[in-house]
Design a protein that fits this description.
phosphoprotein, elongated, alpha/beta, Rossmann fold, NAD(P)-bd_dom_sf, PKS_NRPS_Biosynth_Enz, PKS_KR
């Protein structure tokens, strides 16, 4: 399909572009404005995805995608909004572009960070863009839905900037991290719902986080778990952009942990460049501007031997009376059986499986799967049992980890609750229920394992 596509033939005739990327040549169809020029790239991407969908079906079981960051050079926004049009006109795709109209000054509402980063960003904004700025500096815990409604509806905002995600929790203790995650998630959800209902009051909605995507071990050692406190904003923003595409013009930008003045100038440019605003998930680091793309994982897979189950120790599976736990329990036993068969000279596998849940009761719909697990475990002389452990409570996880340390050799976190609803009908109570057994439980597990050393835990 790719070889037969005419745009690909055009792309072959165009020299490789630096920054904007080769994809531009295939995506442009002689647009007439800077807005159309950039949006046609998204249209080309959608066309490509639709074209190859049928081709992916036969190999879908062998395909997996990871997110990667690609550098995309883009000019800083100018005071007259001409930089994007000028840049695109200079690319070798013969686009006939018209300069956009001169921008008007905007009223801006900012949910500000304590460190003053948002203020520095707006100070670096292009000339003639900022009219008035209202900084909301109250702690998010002090703002309820009525406070947010009053803020959103009191003015026709050109830009609402949610910058409190730039603040890291005071420490890496769970007591400091959990309230930050809750306040950010609750406020962001309510704010976006309000903007969707009052879309005339908000032209653009920007959200900032600080290095939540970094894989630099030095940064993680220095900042610790609190570096990820704002990471839920990314997943929430993705959902919002899909469900509320017509109602909310949203951009997610992740910035450097310690941004330079030039980095913040680029963030300001990203917020005020209307042609590119919200078209990509963007990372702006001291080293440049990057956009997120999904790519095949085959080039990223570690070339290591196949996974082998541990020969001994305790393997815990959260959500122990759910369907996923039964699937993983049986899979572990089948892997143990294969390991015994392939290594007859070694002692047989003797690990223990603990399935954790609030009730430790097998539900009727899982009874058959559980019976199969018990039968298989008996043939292998492996112990499997249900244990009461409410993973939504830190003290419950702490008791379990302390009891089985230092023998824990694996943890599979399958706990989860579905509280499905479209965003306009979603409530914080439902959201909080989902957070409790999934992300909070994960943080509690991490925190407890930091204190209890289990040397064979991979």
């Amino acid at each position: 399909a790719a070889k037969a596509a005419k745009p690909a033939q055009v792309a072959d005739e165009v020299p490789k572009l630096v920054g904007a990327g080769e994809g531009f040549a295939a995506a442009f169809a002689k647009p007439h404005s800077a807005d159309e020029a950039y949006f046609s790239l998204a249209k080309g991407q959608r066309h490509f995805e639709e074209t190859v969908q049928d081709c992916l079906e036969p190999v879908s079981s062998e395909m997996c995608f990871v997110c990667e960051w690609y550098p995309e050079a883009w000019p800083l926004e100018s005071k007259d909004r001409s930089s994007t049009a000028t840049f695109l006109a200079g690319l070798p795709m013969q686009a006939e572009l018209e300069l956009p109209p001169a921008p008007a000054k905007e009223h801006i509402l900012v949910f500000a960070d304590r460190g003053g980063c948002c203020k520095r960003i707006l100070e670096a904004a292009p000339e003639r863009r900022v009219g008035s700025i209202t900084f909301e500096e109250r702690a998010l815990a002090e703002l309820d839905a009525e406070d947010l409604k009053e803020l959103v509806t009191q003015e026709k905002w050109g830009l609402i900037l949610f910058g409190t995600g730039l603040d890291l929790p005071a420490s890496n203790s769970v007591d400091d991290i959990m309230p930050v995650i809750d306040d950010l998630s609750r406020t962001w959800m309510e704010l976006v719902k309000l903007v969707a209902r009052n879309k005339k009051n908000c032209g653009r909605l920007g959200v900032l986080s600080r290095d939540v995507f970094t894989d630099d071990p030095k940064k993680h050692r220095k900042a610790g778990l609190r570096l990820e406190a704002a990471s839920s904003l990314w997943g929430m923003s993705n959902t919002m952009r899909i469900e509320l595409e017509e109602a909310v013009h949203l951009a997610y930008i992740d910035i450097e942990l310690k941004p330079s003045d030039e980095c913040l100038k680029r963030v300001a440019s990203e917020l005020f460049c209307q042609e590119t605003f919200g078209q990509n998930t963007v990372r702006i680091l001291n080293s440049g501007r990057y956009i997120m793309r999904q790519v095949q994982c085959k080039h990223y897979q570690a070339r290591t031997p196949s996974f082998e189950v541990p020969s001994s120790g305790v393997i815990a599976i959260t959500g122990g009376n759910g369907s996923l736990a039964q699937v993983f329990g049986l899979h572990l036993l089948e892997m143990a059986e294969r390991k015994n068969r392939e290594h007859p000279g070694l002692p047989p596998v003797s690990f223990t499986i603990k399935l954790l849940s609030r009730s430790a009761v097998v539900r009727d719909r899982e009874a058959q799967a559980w019976a199969e697990i018990v039968k298989k475990a008996a043939t292998l002389n492996i112990s499997v049992d249900h244990v009461k452990c409410d993973v939504t409570k830190a003290e419950s996880i702490e008791r379990f980890i302390a009891e089985y340390t230092p023998n824990i050799t694996g943890i599979i976190h399958t706990a989860g609750i579905l509280q499905d609803a479209m965003l306009p009908g979603q409530t914080w109570e439902k959201f909080e229920t989902c957070l409790g057994c999934k992300s909070r439980a994960c943080i509690y597990l991490h925190d407890s394992l930091e204190r209890h050393h289990n040397p064979d835990l991979g």
